[in-house]
Amino acid sequence: MESGFSLRKIIHVDMDAFYASVEQMDNPELKGKPLAVGGGEIRGVVSAASYEARKFGVRSAMSGALAKKRCPDLIFVPPRFDRYREISKKVRAIFYDYTDLVEPLSLDEAYLDVTENKKGNPSATLIAREIRQRILEEVGLTASAGISVNKFIAKVASDYNKPNGQKTVNPEEVPEFLESLEIRKFYGVGKVTAEKMFKLGIFTGQDLKAKSLEFLEAQFGKSGVFYYDVVRGIHRSEVKPNRAPKSVAAERTFSDNLTSEVFMMEKLEKIASELARRLERHQISGKTITLKIKYSDFTLQTRSKTLNYFISDKSLILETARELLYQEKMQNSVRLLGISLANLNTGGDEDKESPDEEKTVSVQLKFDF
C-alpha cells in the first residue's frame, strides 16, 4: 500500500436491514417473516426489505408489484420514519461514547474515526465489536462493521460479513484485499460504470490497478483519478462531523396515476409544504430547485432551475416547481412527483483532494488494529 498521509483507524458501522429490523423488533409477529417496508402489492416502491425477503430477490427501490411476484408471502408495512429517527439517535449516542468524530451517512450508517478515542483503546477491531454488542443489548438490533485505514476500505469491508458481523482490513492486508475485490464491490462503482469497466477488461481490483492514470482519466474523467487512488489504498477524505446535507427533498408516490397538470399542482402544493417544513426545521435555504417526475412506465425525468438568490419559502418553491412542470408536455401519466432544493447555504465543502498534495511514497506499515 502507498500512503501520503497519516494512517487512521476508521470504523464504518452499518445497521442490518434497519427499517425492516425495527419493524420486526416492534412487532414480534413479523420476526422471521419476509417483510418489505413501503411499497404495496399494486403501488409504491420498497424502501427496505428484511433478510428473509432478500432471499427471494426483494430489494429496496423495487416496485411493490415485482417484490410480491418474487415473494408471494411478502408482508408490506408502511414506513415510520419518526421511529427510525428515534432508534438512530440511540445508536449514535453509543458512537459518541467512543469518539466525537462521527459522520452519519444516513439513519442507519456512519463513519467513526477512533484513531484517538475516549476509551483509550488502541484496537479499532475491539472497539467495533464493543459498539456492536452495545447496540444489540441497549437497542435490540444487530449491526455490521468494517474497520480499516480509510473510509473507502472500511465501507467496503462492512458489507463482507453481513448481517451481524465485522471485518478488519489491516494495513498490510490492504493491497491484496483491494486487488482481489470484484469491481462491482468497489464503493462508487455503479451498474453503468461496472458495465463499462467490463468492456475494458476490468473485472477485479487487480485489473483496475494495472491501468495507467492516463488511461483511467481518458475513460472516466475526474473519476479516473479516484479509481486510480482507491485501488492503491489511497483515500484522503477525513471523517467529518456535522456533515452538511447536499440537498433537501420531499416526494410522493400516488395510488392512482396522474394525467392532468392541474391534479399534479395539487400534489406539488402538499410536497412543497413538506419541503418547506424540513427546510425551516434545519434552517436551510438553497438556490437550485429540481422537479422529479416518475412516469407510469417507471422512466424518470428531472427538470431543474437555479435562481440568483436563496429560497426556503413554500410559495417561491411552488412557483418554481409550477414553472418546471409546465416547461414541457408530459410524456405519460405520472406515478411520482418530488421537489428537491440544492446549492444550499450550509457552507459545507465536498470531499476534496488537492492536486498539490505531496506525492505518495511507499512505506512499511506497522499499525495495531
From TrEMBL:
GO MF term list: damaged DNA binding; DNA-directed DNA polymerase activity; magnesium ion binding
Gene Ontology CC terms, in alphabetical order: cytosol
Cofactor: Mg(2+)
Cofactor: how and how many bound: Binds 2 magnesium ions per subunit.
Key words of the record: Cytoplasm, DNA damage, DNA repair, DNA replication, DNA-binding, DNA-directed DNA polymerase, Magnesium, Metal-binding, Mutator protein, Nucleotidyltransferase, Transferase
UniProt record similarity statement: Belongs to the DNA polymerase type-Y family.
Protein name, as recorded: DNA polymerase IV
Native source species: Leptobacterium flavescens
Lineage: Bacteria, Pseudomonadati, Bacteroidota, Flavobacteriia, Flavobacteriales
Gene: dinB
